[in-house]
């Protein structure tokens, strides 16, 4: 018999300013706690909106979120395909995915986690 461990993961999808359409989004942040994800996004916000040439930005300069438009919601996916998705995934699959995608902000603390 083999046990399969699943974890509940919250994934934040955002639209990069340089994408040609607002509906185009990519996975930016992963967390196992929705509040940790929300707190992270709040921490990355600049004190006020600022301009960088033609780009109006709301996240801090140098932040992993700097080049993204703010999501419409941190509670669900919006009709624009941005926001937070919630899903159960197999632990080993998520660990592999995180290691293979170092550009994603990992708030899960799952890499190296073992149930044994």
Describe this structure in words.
- The model has no long low-confidence stretch (mean pLDDT 92).
- The longest helix has 11 residues, at 34-44.
- The protein contains 2 helices and 6 strands; from the N terminus they run ββαβββαβ.
- By secondary structure, the chain is an alpha+beta fold.
- It has helices spanning 34-44, 91-100; strands at residues 6-14, 26-31, 45-52, 55-59, 83-90, 105-106.
- The chain has one domain.
- It is elongated, with a radius of gyration of 15 Å.
- It is 18% helix and 33% strand.
- The strands form 2 sheets. Strands 5-1-2-6 form a 4-stranded mixed sheet.
Helix-strand string: EEHEEEHE
Output mean pLDDT. 92
Our Rg estimate from Cα atoms comes to: 15 Å
Report the β-strand fraction as a percent range: 25-35%
Briefly, what is this?
The chain has helices at residues 34-44, 91-100; strands spanning 6-14, 26-31, 45-52, 55-59, 83-90, 105-106. By secondary structure, the chain is α+β, with helices and mostly antiparallel strands. The strands form two sheets. The chain has a four-stranded mixed sheet. Strands 3-4 form a two-stranded antiparallel ribbon.
């Amino acid at each position: 018999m083999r046990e399969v461990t699943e974890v509940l993961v919250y994934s934040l999808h955002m639209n990069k300013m340089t994408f040609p359409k607002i509906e185009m989004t990519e996975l930016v942040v992963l967390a196992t706690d929705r509040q940790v994800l929300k707190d992270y996004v709040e921490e990355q916000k600049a004190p006020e909106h600022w301009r960088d040439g033609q780009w109006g930005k709301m996240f801090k300069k140098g932040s992993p979120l700097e080049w993204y438009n703010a999501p419409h919601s941190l509670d669900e996916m919006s009709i624009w395909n941005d926001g937070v998705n919630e899903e159960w995934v197999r632990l080993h699959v998520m660990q592999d995915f995180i290691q293979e995608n170092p550009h994603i902000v990992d708030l899960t603390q799952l890499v190296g986690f073992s149930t044994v």
